């Protein structure tokens, strides 16, 4: 088991390095990347089934890596761990990774930078697996930052395009700003617990499991330092997972090639926040304020992103917003943990199912975009119709996203709903009053999100499978903003709508179909989680009704091939495409910071530095004055000196006498 | 008046006269040569006082080395041969200098003569052996310190001469900055 | 047997002459001759007082030797400075006011 977990983290990293070394040969790079990803899946499966049983919730094994670092009285064990949830998430990550690697062999086969891309994807997987398997806050931070860097590389893969570069910078800067909070949180936790071992921190804070280490007073529940640390972590997670103030980088990240988007959205980067918070959920149980912050952020994000997703004119951007919404659903489950053991499981379960169906959707849309020559709805109108496996895959993916009952998305979403409802009913005594309104807020937001999700999924399905009326097409083209990823992003020179100009290869098609299959049967995977399947009957009924209602409403609006989103009006849709100016707000924040820095620099230069400069100048003038005084003839000076000496001598002799 | 007194008086008069001549002569090179006479006769004074070693060192270093250095310096600074009208400072300063010189002499006399008294004594200066014993015994550390001083003076003189050597004599103001 | 006021008088005369030489000469080398005379005066005083001293330290003679050594070092450096002055200014006249311009050596010292 030890070897399995170590290999699981090391293998993609080694594959990344080897892929870079083998970048002269795309074939070798593809082979390396795919083989490593495949081995990763095998290892993850071994971890799921071969893990020691027993207490299913707690850490089941601790794995040493390079040995502890000796840092004063701070304990840095740097070890990995394995438990049920890490095994499941690792499985999802590696499966998605494999699908992405296989798919990108086909998707990027005309791109001369494919080997680099494959290596970056491998490194990305290594970072995510490190976060998943990490038993140490420092290792978590390392994986976290590796992912941040890789996302920058992947989003900006097409370096020739200005918008891709800008999107990469934006992703990097936004997540980096948010990471300040993350690092602060980690440092605060580590300093207070005198260890970076996650288990040690948990024990220190809540006396979780074993008795706490002697000599240190544990955090008092809800203490200020704990709250600050955890809110800092929430800020970091908000940056990576795209919660509301930081959400705008994710839709822009669609500039990256579609497989990269699938990776970032489905399994790795944005889901990392969920993993970290789930790992630390006992801490959040002790900090109601941090949970409230998380809950409010999640509620706002899921609603806002779902609304924006409905109005998008580009499939990939719609999927991006839906990712934001879904991640917020996962986090909302984690925001309600007091005394509910299955809360982290519900969040991670949704992560698992989301990883499957979202990667399926992204890869399928990538496939479709090669056929349609773009990712805008206009380019893809009706393209999915009559395409067999592809059409089915998209259908299954959208249905799972919407939460249609037999699919995996339904169960995981119901799990989250059930947790929130349960926490509403139960609530720890003394804490229920503080957070009850947040719980209500999240519950309402969840239900509304279910409605909206069903609506935009139905819209997407209708748009992709029905032809537009010819007049509509012209109008839509006029109001069209540029496609998020012009198909040239994939690297092919002539991405025309030439149907079947580049027939999909069997492995790529298989990867999409395989994901579709997993989406159908993935519910089995949820059983692996402790209390993974947990559905409240009433809420399930309510949400099914909501889904059906929303879908039929959209269907009714869409008669005759009309885009249901036209209800919103052209101006609103245009603004929604641009995220309602959040980007401008980011630029504004950046400008404000720069201006502030200039003011400070000017203060420093003109006010603070003035004193030293004045001192220097005064000294200089004094020196010059002394200089002038001493510029007489040497001979005259000598006379004065001797006069002085003689006078002194006379005085001395006189006194001596 | 003992014999020693007479001898010292004779030598001392020559010394004083040559010293005065060396500071008043109008010929640059003559000043250096009168200095040779002055320092040489001063060595004679030391002999009369019984300090043969000091006398010998005086002849070796002062007359042998220092005066040669002075002569070299005069030559290197292109000192003219023959009578020079402008060797002395202006008259006012010369009068002041004379007054100050006389004052200095008076001051020294007023201080030193009472110090030694009017009595006649036998000089008891040690011979070379005792001086050497004292130098390399009691005085050995100051002696070593002096060797360091000489080394420092050597290096310092070299550095000063080198820095200035990079600049040509009487450069035009324009190229002064550029010549470094 | 001799009277020690004689050498003391000579020392006083030498000191006065040296002082006059320092002040009455324009040429820097000649000023140095004055300085040498003053130093010799000091030496004479040392030797004279040493000859009246019976201590085994031989302070007078030893210090006279030291003064000669120091004088040698002094004249070495002083003549180097005189040469430098001659090269920089083209003369060694001490009655002329110093050059009012900054010399290159000063301008390199971090103004």
Q: Uncertain runs of chain C with pLDDT below 50, 5 residues or more?
A: 102-111
- What's the order of the H and E elements of chain C? EHHHH
Predict the CATH topology of one domain in chain B. Answer: Four Helix Bundle (Hemerythrin (Met), subunit A)
Helix content of chain B: over 70%
Structurally, how many domains make up the residues of chain C? 1
N- to C-terminal separation of chain C? 64 Å
Shape of chain C: elongated
Structural category of chain B is mainly alpha
Radius of gyration of chain B: 22 Å
Strand content of chain C: under 5%
Shape of chain B: globular
Query: Which CATH top level class of one domain in chain B fits?
Result: Mainly Alpha
CATH topology of chain C: Helix Hairpins
CATH architecture heading of chain C: Orthogonal Bundle
Largest sheet of chain B: none
Query: Separation of termini of chain B?
Result: 65 Å
Architecture per CATH nomenclature, i.e. the level-2 architecture of one domain in chain B = Up-down Bundle
Outline the structure in words.
The complex is a heterotrimer of chains A (657), B (180) and C (111). Chain A is mostly helical and 657 residues long. Chain A folds into 2 domains: 2-577, no CATH class; 578-628. In chain A, 72% of the residues lie in helices and 2% in strands. Chain A has 27 helices and 4 strands. Chain A has helices at 2-21, 26-50, 84-107, 114-133, 137-155, 162-193, 198-206, 224-241, 249-252, 258-267, 269-279, 281-285, 288-311, 315-334, 342-372, 377-380, 389-402, 408-425, 432-465, 470-478, 506-521, 523-528, 537-557, 570-577, 582-608, 610-629, 634-656; strands at 61-64, 69-71, 74-76, 79-82. In chain A, helix 1 runs antiparallel to helix 4. Chain A is elongated and about 125 Å long. The termini of chain A are far apart. Residues 208-218, 428-432 and 472-501 of chain A have low confidence and may be disordered. Chain B is mainly alpha-helical. The longest helix of chain B is centred in the middle third of the chain and has 26 residues, at 91-116. The model of chain B is unreliable at 168-180 (pLDDT under 50). The model of chain C is unreliable at 102-111 (pLDDT under 50). Chain C has 111 residues and is mainly α. Chain C starts with a strand and ends with a helix. Chain C is elongated, with a radius of gyration of 19 Å. Chain C has one domain (5-92): Helix Hairpins. In chain C, helix 1 runs antiparallel to helix 2 and helix 2 runs antiparallel to helix 3 (59-89). Chains B and C meet through helix 1, helix 2, helix 3, helix 4 and strand 1 of B and strand 1, helix 1, helix 2, helix 3 and helix 4 of C.
